[in-house]
UniProtKB/TrEMBL annotation:
Keyword Secreted tagged: no
Name of the protein this chain belongs to: Rieske (2Fe-2S) protein
Molecular functions (GO terms): 2 iron, 2 sulfur cluster binding; metal ion binding
InterPro entries: Rieske_2Fe-2S, Rieske_2Fe-2S_sf
Pfam families xref list: Rieske
Keywords carried by this UniProt record: 2Fe-2S, Iron, Iron-sulfur, Metal-binding
SUPFAM superfamilies xrefs: ISP domain
Origin: domain of life: Bacteria
């Protein structure tokens, strides 16, 4: 797993939902109730930008058709049968870091 610093972001514990780009990936970064979460930025339903949505009860709500995704697991709400990828986050002294597994690491994990 490689860790990438989110550029140009000063973390203040204020809530936010923001699209960031790290290692060429679009990621929806969510600061919610004192923690930071990283999810894929594209809604699997019809491709909306999830950073345009909002959080409610620990779920990220898509602004297009209001599908919702658990910010901890990425799992879609009951009946949706979908999910968004999630990424580990570390808040360090010098900023927020997102962990992204290499293709080989993902492959190994899939066959565990
Ligand atoms: S595009 Fe997100 S719910 Fe439809």
């Amino acid at each position: 797993m490689n860790w990438y610093k989110v550029p140009d972001l000063q973390y203040t514990k204020e809530p936010f939902i923001k699209k960031v780009k790290v290692n060429g990936k679009g990621i929806c970064l969510v600061s919610y109730e004192g923690d930071v979460y990283a999810l894929s930025s594209t809604c699997p339903h019809a491709g909306a930008e999830l950073s345009g949505g909002w959080c409610k009860d620990g779920k990220l709500i898509c602004p297009f058709h209001r599908y919702s995704y658990d910010i901890h697991t990425g799992k879609g709400d009951h009946g949706q049968n979908d999910f968004v990828d999630t990424y580990p986050v570390e808040v360090r002294e010098d900023g927020i870091y997102i962990g992204i597994a290499s293709f080989l690491e993902k492959l190994k994990q899939a066959f565990k």
